[in-house]
Amino acid sequence: MADEKKTPWWHSTVDAFDTFLRVPGTVTAKGAHVRDGIDLKRVMIMVVIALVPAALFGMYNVGLQTSTVYGLDWGFWHMFFYGLLRMLPLFVVSYVVGLAIEFASSQIRGEEVNEGYLVTGFLIPLIVPVDVPLWMLALAVAFSVIFVKEVFGGTGMNIWNPALVARAFLFFSYPSSMSGSSVWVSKTWVPALKGVDAVSAATPLAIAHDGAFDAATGAVGQYSFMDMFYGFIPGSTGETSVIAILIGALILVWTGVASWKIMVSSLAGGLLVGWLGQLAGATAVPCYYQLVMGGFLFGSVFMATDPVTAAQTETGKWIYGFLVGALAVVVRLWNPGYMEGMMLSILFMNTMAPLIDHCVVSAHTSRRAKKAVNA
Amino acid sequence: MSNNLDLKKGLNIPIKGVPAPEVVKTVKPDIIAIKPTDFAGLTPRLLVKEGDVVKAGSPVMTDKLRPEILLTSPVSGKVESIVRGEKRKLLAVLVKADAQQEYVDFGAQAPKTAQEVKELLLKSGLWVSLVQRPYGTVASPDAQPKAIFVSSFSTAPLAADTDFVLGSAVADIQAGVDALAKVAPVHFAVKKAGSAFAGIKNATVHSVSGPHPAGNVGVQISHIAPIQKGETVWTVSLLLLAAIGKLVNTGKLDLTRKVAITGPCAPKAAYVVALPGTPVKELTDLPAGDIRVVGGDALTGEVLGADGCLGFFQDQLTLLEEGTAREWFGWAKPFRPSVFSSSWCYFSWLTPKKEYKMDTNLHGGPRAFVETKCFEDVTPMDIFPIYLIKACLAGDIEKMEKFGIYEVLPEDLALCDYVDPSKNEIQAIIQKGIDLMIKEMA
Questions:
Q1: Distance from A117 to chain B by nearest Cα, in Å?
Q2: In this predicted model, what pLDDT tens digit does every residue of A197-234 receive, in sequence order?
Q3: Chain A residues with CB inside 8 Å of B292's CB?
């Protein structure tokens, strides 16, 4: 522990760096004398590790999309490094702005800096279009960290997922940079494309929304099902590859950091509503396409499972996850203007999670009370 | 009601220093401490002064509010000194033991009625071995408990093996059960895997299996007959049940016990025979270095210190190193072979048989609750631990009642302390809730 007497004013910051480097020498004062090796730093870094495959694939895909759409004929490494170069500033802005606010507010509260932003800061660049202007991103991060997290008391106290709120902030404040068919493929920083007009490259979700589904080949516009499964499609940087996300899901479920119940029930909800939509004639796209298009899977695996904002009871997790998936597809199918429902669905269910838990716990206590009367 | 209880949730903590099943020495009593602080809900009043002569079984202290409850001396000898703490709080009475022990004779005949049982326990000083739930205080002599529960085994880390410690005292235990059964129905839990006490009569025997805290009497009660508002049950440890039986059989108060010396820092992890109140230094040699001496197990024990004395309920010492050393990049290392974690974020699951040299390091800093499923995974009771914990934090009596405060003592949620990645002090929070309940419901 850093000596608080020597650094009375900024000890939160000193502590943060100190404990980042070395395990604190604090010993147990009351309660159990020995403790598990796990701490929040380890939990959070596990989520970041689980996100790495999606991030790496995203970097490659950014280059791939630019190369394909503008006919540049780049090689693999060229694509990857272009994507890396384009995404690095997003990570830097996200972490610098977010952590600065996190450190400042921990300082004000006089608490140790919480590790929650390690994950949030990594998530945000993965759920935005790659060419989003950095100042917008900075604004969104600042808004979400201050008004969604710190005013409630920091990590563990927030009601909504801060990364998603940052995206929602961007989406509603700067829709022209966040939606439409020309924002998904990056052309900034490519000398050959200077002065070239942005080419329209709609996401499969938007194409499907417009009804361009070929039932014979199973393709949505120019994209086959396997394109969407591998992730060779336009979209937010981290959300496109099902394989990369499934690797992350495996890590999260294996380590027990995220709830598999939420993931499974969210997929079930999405599938069911997708199937009903097909029956009702709202869409021609088979229900399982809903899982590989847009941010559905990324949201189910990484965003809906945030232990702070999800339901806390095990029964509640089934209900919560199911409704996340179901609502997302409802928005996709029965909403004329807005084709991606995952973000709003998760934020809505974040709001409802305490209610779900309340119902589960009340049902449990009244069952206990009944048992007591009968005993 | 099933007599078979298979619990799945919980965690056995693989800590080094399991006591070998052998007695390495018998401590001859010299100075023995009688500590009123061992008993929750007891306000002590002195009955002796320095220089008084006492026998084994003579009263030394009484409860101010319920003068029929007595604390008696476990040895015969002379009161050497009275130890007081801040605000003259009574901490201990020290008795210098005689070379030849003399016992008060309480009469070696089995009590016939509930009233006789109560009187015998009260005057012998063994009454305080009865713990009343809810709240875990010294049993109230006026109360009529719904039942009396005994767990014949402990699953706590490195706990004394009751088969070894008391396997030869089955007759005493049976006598104790017979006596208590006159007061209320006795429920007796035995290890399913095999137990020296499976043949106990005059009680409902339950076979229990599962990881810690399956051996906790509170967990067993919550499955056998959960405590409801307004109900009272008593519990007694097997150790003290044997003492009650011995009192019935011989008419003497004999608290001699085999004490397990355990933990990674124990010079020789084995058993010693001693009385409660024996100074730690006579029980075991202490290795050099910054050592924490815990009376009881590593999850729920009390810090005794090198100059402390064994408590009334304790039959175990756990010796742990103070974990003040700071590990570089601890949380970021892929492998930390010396650190155990029940979470699969580390790789301890690869070495399920390994025993770890655990110390008292917190392994992190205090944070708000983030992961809460881990609490449910180690709490084999029909409650939502996180809701109970939050109700206790908020001091909301109604919610505490609803979420099961009557069923738990801090020891039943001790594993939550252990597994929490946010390093909250769950046992302290629960104790605060219980203290509030006692204050408000009195």
A1: 13
A2: 888 888 888 888 888 888 888 888 889 999 999 999 99
A3: 27, 33
